[in-house]
Write a structure and sequence with these properties.
The chain is mainly alpha-helical. 68% of the residues lie in helices and 6% in strands. It folds into four domains: 1-169, no CATH class; 172-250 and 405-462; 253-376, no CATH class; 464-582, Heat Shock Protein 90. It has 18 helices and five strands. Strands 1-2-3-5-4 form a five-stranded mixed sheet. The protein starts with 12 loop residues before the first helix and ends with a strand.
């Protein structure tokens, strides 16, 4: 499936060239690197010694730094609001040309100051760099802008494909099978604890555990075991499940840009020839005289057009062999290098050493890719769409959808473990402590029975009652006898879809207030907002916020409220306020 509809078709050229990516730091860094390569490729004398080569490199860095200072000033002034109000196209082109002028001026003056032999005069260099800047700057800005849009479109296509696949996966039998696997995993984790509790009860109370007296020491041991289980078994397991992550679709690597240029783009003889003339014409005239310089430059242009136009014709005739023909065209273009080497050595022996030839080969190939990938302005969108072409693999989409389904169910299970299971174990432990302290044997037996029920089926089928009020009351009932509650729920609060989220928020608030804050009274208020969201406010009279390390409870509150929650101290106790979106 190709990258989908082109969003650039709805944007103006000013928005593309004068928006976010105008004089962006990414463009600056890449262009500075290319400028260094171009400078060293065009200066034959930089190979004469290490000190000379280092001087040229330092000149390039100094020139790039001068351009960088200009861009910093522009980013803070004229271009500051370009994301909101794109700057005019003429200003972008003028600034890019000015960057070329500054680069060429610093290099030319620096070479003169350091006494470096150079192939170009300062004026020639400034003119050439200005022309290159006026072309390359807007071209690369367009490329970065299109790349951002293409990535966004591709991400949306993948997300849509994954959602479609998720819809198929969310059939009852598939979801239930995944849930059962998670329930089995939790049951296996807690099974040894149940065995230990049953063995302890059998030893302490005889054959019929719930019909005989259990001593205070035995009750305390069971209580400690439950707390230990909640911390050492349930908590780590819930944390591991919460951190279960889904697969991500692999990003399109940068190197695929060059691959796609070779696979889909034609040669651009006009642009390539223009770069060759501007880059070598002045040098050849200076080295060999006007007549020979023009002859050699014209011969190169003729060969460039002959090779590239022929290759384009063959690629159109045999599109299936586009890649091989393109590579063959690059190889055939090296005839220009052979001709150039022949005449340079004929007219000026020693002017085409092996190092110069290798540099010309590398730079020439790079220029072919750049001009082929960014050389056409007649249909820039189609050109860049080919550069970024990437197929969305259905098998990977299906794999991502399955992993996302598992991750979502794992998080649901983690929240149940952290909230309901851990809450029930701790509340049983606290009930045992209270019953043991008062000598209420019936309460002890009742709590022990609840312990075995929890451990026998730690992950029962989730059941959510019809209204938020009933769900809040159900959560409060888990702590019956351990804390007093005042519950106020607006009859119009939320919808059926909000019941589970509000119930878990209340469950987390109660658990933290009693377990960590030692609260004896909790006030719960649930009301609807004008936008359909539900505001949950839980006040307690405990010790107040403890400031501990955020855990799963905090992560769930963040997720359930999309970040719209707060925990503040009160004169006595704390207030948790959570806004659950509609």
């Amino acid at each position: 499936m190709p990258v989908g509809p082109d969003p650039l078709l709805t944007r103006t050229l000013r928005e593309r060239l004068g928006g976010r990516w105008a004089i962006a730091w990414q463009s600056y860094l890449i262009t500075a690197g290319l400028g260094l390569i171009a400078l060293l490729a065009g200066e034959e004398h930089f190979r004469s010694s290490t000190s000379v080569a280092l001087s040229w490199v330092m000149l390039s860095l100094a020139s790039s730094a001068a351009v960088g200072i200009l861009l910093l000033v522009l980013n803070a002034t004229v271009f500051r609001n370009r994301r909101v109000t794109p700057v005019p196209i003429w200003l972008v082109v003028a600034v890019d040309a000015l960057c070329g002028v500054i680069f060429g001026l610093v290099v030319g003056l620096g070479a003169t100051l350091l006494g470096l032999d150079t192939n170009l005069g300062t004026l020639e260099r400034v003119v050439l760099d200005a022309v290159y800047g006026a072309w390359w700057g807007p071209t690369f800005t367009y490329f970065l802008d299109y790349r951002e849009q293409a990535v966004t479109v591709r991400r949306e296509l993948i997300a849509a494909s994954v959602q479609t696949e998720l819809a198929a996966l969310q059939q009852v039998e598939v979801v239930e099978r995944l849930r059962q696997e998670l329930r089995d995993e939790v049951g296996q984790e807690l099974s040894p604890v149940r065995t230990r509790v049953e063995a302890h009860l059998a030893e302490s109370a005889g054959a019929v555990a719930f019909e005989t007296h259990v001593g205070t020491a035995d009750v305390q041991e069971v209580s400690d075991l439950l707390r230990g289980t909640a911390e050492s078994s349930v908590r780590p397991l819930s944390k591991r499940l919460w951190n279960e992550s889904s697969e991500r679709y692999p990003r399109t690597p940068w190197w695929s840009l060059a691959v796609n240029i070779v696979r889909y783009q034609p040669f651009r003889p006009i642009m390539y020839a223009a770069v060759d003339v501007l880059g070598t014409g002045f040098v050849q005239v200076r080295l060999f005289g006007l007549a020979r310089g023009i002859f050699l430059t014209s011969a190169m242009v003729l060969l460039i057009f002959l090779v590239m136009l022929s290759a384009n014709a063959v690629m159109r005739a045999f599109p299936r062999w586009h890649t091989a023909i393109f590579i063959g065209g690059i190889v055939a273009l090296q005839i220009t290098l052979v001709v150039r080497v022949h005449f340079r050595e004929l007219w000026l022996p020693g002017s085409a050493p092996l190092g110069w030839q290798v540099t010309q080969l590398v730079v020439g190939t790079l220029v072919v890719l750049i001009t082929s990938g960014f050389g056409a302005w007649s249909d820039k969108s189609a050109e860049l769409r080919a550069n970024f072409r990437a197929d969305i693999r259905q098998d990977q989409v299906e794999s991502i959808a399955r992993s996302r389904q598992v991750a979502e169910l794992a998080r649901e299970t983690a929240q149940l473990l952290h909230g309901t299971v851990q809450t029930r174990l701790v509340s049983c432990a606290m009930a045992l402590d209270k019953a043991s302290a008062t000598g209420d044997q019936a309460a002890v037996n009742s709590a022990l029975q609840e312990v075995l029920v929890v451990l026998a089926e730690p992950m029962p089928q989730p059941t959510y009652v019809g209204t938020i009020a009933e769900e809040v009351e159900r959560k409060a009932a888990l702590w019956e006898g351990l804390c007093e509650f005042t519950v106020r729920v607006d009859d119009t609060a939320g919808s059926q879809a909000s019941v589970m989220a509000v119930g878990r928020v209340v469950e987390e608030a109660i658990s933290n207030a009693i377990r960590h804050g030692g609260a004896s009274h909790i006030d719960i208020s649930v009301a609807s907002e004008s936008d359909g969201s539900v505001r949950v406010v839980v006040d307690d009279d405990g010790r107040g916020p403890g400031g501990g390390v955020p855990g799963i409870g905090t992560a769930y509150l963040q997720q359930a409220s999309a970040g719209r929650w707060s925990l503040k101290p009160l004169p006595r106790g704390s207030r948790l306020e959570v806004l659950v979106p509609a």
